[in-house]
């Protein structure tokens, strides 16, 4: 299982490209895949937690994705960056898990969906509480919009990918990503309008 934030530095790993690590894994290097996953664990986890909105489901989806990437590494053809390929696998695993979740009864969302904000700063408890509350509000709102729009918003607005990069990850046209972002933002604005009213 990948543990975000726990990286073991390696001078060789720093100079080896993602594609080289993937090729080394396919050729039988027992540590190449781990090195590749450690390099991208934080960002892949960030995508999974924001798409899934639940830490346990995100962890399960990420684990499914890593198993899939491990097994399918030989199919990688280099048509896109390794990170694009990995993000696509993570999103597909998230969508598969969301479909399974939709088929079972759902309960209320947990109160502590995203603990990352609490780890960033402890200097100002009041500001930290506000940030944490806002992060929870946004995470709950994201959970209420469609998976396609949520994935586009996570990649573009939260992860900072360009429309073209997000399109490559999602396997669709940039215009489709733009449209999904636009519709998703409109829905989020409605879901979060109470925050503006409080100001």
Structure report:
The chain has 199 residues and is mostly helical. It has a domain at 12-107: Rna Polymerase Sigma Factor, Chain: A, CATH 1.10.1740. The protein has 11 helices and no strands. Residues 1-12 and 109-122 have low confidence and may be disordered.
Describe how the helices and strands are arranged.
Elements: H1 11-15, H2 18-26, H3 32-52, H4 55-72, H5 82-102, H6 116-120, H7 125-142, H8 147-158, H9 163-170, H10 174-191, H11 193-198
Strand composition percent: under 5%
Oligomer: single chain
Order of helices and strands: HHHHHHHHHHH
User: Which word captures the global form?
Assistant: globular
| CATH class annotation of the domain at 12-107 | Mainly Alpha
Q: At the third CATH level, what is the topology name of the domain at 12-107? A: Rna Polymerase Sigma Factor, Chain: A
The tally of strands reads: 0
Main sheet attributes: strand count, strand direction, barrel closure: none
Overall mean pLDDT: 79
Q: What fraction, in percent, of the residue positions are helical?
A: over 70%
- Could you tell me the radius of gyration in angstroms? 18 Å
Q: Give the structural class.
A: mainly alpha
Count of helical segments? Answer: 11
CATH-derived architecture of the domain at 12-107: Orthogonal Bundle
CATH superfamily of the domain at 12-107, by name, is RNA polymerase sigma factor, region 2, helix turn helix motif
Low-confidence stretches: 1-12, 109-122
